[in-house]
């Protein structure tokens, strides 16, 4: 029994054939540069990587090529017992507080929500449309925002003029919800407790933090879009919105330029010249003072969120690190936790240095808060949610 998980971007299709029970990724692949002069396809099955350069005009051609690879290289989808296709969709607005079976109506709702996620939903929709045409199994959409539909109004509503906010559906929707939900559930399983006040730090190229009480999200750092919150690879995170007015009035920048500046040319890249955390560390270790400063800003922002979320929840039981940086960057974790020592949060330095794919504790046993590393797996979470929907 398997689920094909599809994450369709504006010029890419990422896919994984997942066994939702064992959690194994049976085949993994990526189509890139769709619609460009040459597209690139990578398909990995049984440890062997197969790569192709060819012209793929659109997502339909891309997915057709991938389905051919499943036939030629394997695994054959019918023999792999494909039960559903799970699609990652970024924005579910207030319509979706969980996964949904794709019907024409659901498909149209995803399209209607595009103005709230113009970079993502139209691209996600392309994947849904072509996959529905080519794969005759149930299709399920899993939304990045769904886990955050439980946010209380005081956390979700901005102090923006109510009429304007409501007319244009402006509120905090959050993002990375599939990961925050998966990780917070793992923390509950690992500790054997459902009654936890948790902070989940998803630190990848995009980065977000959530506050979770008894399994429900009560706050999160991403807002109307994934731009708000932590310092990210190329995004500013939190910034005074008046900077936009200033750069428009004084700098003469238009909306497109500002969008690009804030989303693509800022964050670690804008501060240190590199968006990859490993490259930032390499620069900082070589004495680059802007790179060191970028790390300081990154850590400062994290500490600020952890403190404020502990206050919002009225306590804190666990902090979970996840995603590329959270799972692999022991130096950064150490700097963050060291800043929290005055609250009795203590890192076990040896445990922090151990590399592993398993969930593990990195705080000392006498730490006031249990600090954990929890490998995230959004594809598996999507596959399991898809199975839940089709077996309802
Ligand atoms: P993700 O978006 O979850 O794939 O995470 C990507 C980020 O994780 C990039 O900034 C990488 O530099 C970072 N990353 C991956 N491995 C390491 C590592 N060993 N140390 C520090 N950062 C890492």
Write the layout of secondary structure elements.
Blueprint: E1 2-8, E2 13-18, E3 25-32, E4 39-45, E5 48-54, H1 59-72, E6 82-89, E7 100-101, H2 104-112, H3 121-134, E8 139-143, H4 153-156, H5 162-167, H6 177-191, E9 197-203, E10 207-213, E11 216-220, H7 242-249, H8 255-264, H9 267-272, H10 277-285, H11 289-313, E12 318-322, H12 323-328, H13 330-338, H14 349-353, E13 360-361, E14 370-373, H15 378-390
Parallel strand pairs: 1-6, 6-8, 9-12, 12-14
Antiparallel strand pairs: 1-2, 2-3, 3-4, 4-5, 7-8, 9-10, 10-11, 13-14
Helix pairs in contact: 1-3, 10-11, 11-13
- At the first level of CATH, the class of the largest domain is Alpha Beta
CA(first)-CA(last) distance: 17 Å
SS strand fraction: 15-25%
Q: How many beta-strand runs?
A: 14
Rounded mean pLDDT is 97
Helix content: 25-40%
Q: State the CATH architecture of the largest domain.
A: 2-Layer Sandwich
InterPro entries: Ac/propionate_kinase, Aliphatic_acid_kin_short-chain, Aliphatic_acid_kinase_CS, ATPase_NBD
Pathway: Metabolic intermediate biosynthesis; acetyl-CoA biosynthesis; acetyl-CoA from acetate: step 1/2
EC number: 2.7.2.1
Family: Belongs to the acetokinase family.
What does this 3D model show about the protein?
This protein starts with a strand and ends with a helix. The strands form two sheets. It has an eight-stranded mixed sheet, with helices on both faces. Strands 11-10-9-12-14-13 form a six-stranded mixed sheet, with helices on both faces. Helix content is about 40%, strand content about 20%. The protein has two domains: about 140 residues, ATPase, nucleotide binding domain (Nucleotidyltransferase, domain 5); about 190 residues, Nucleotidyltransferase, domain 5 (2-Layer Sandwich), CATH 3.30.420. By secondary structure, it is an alpha/beta fold. Adenosine monophosphate binds next to helix 10 and helix 12.
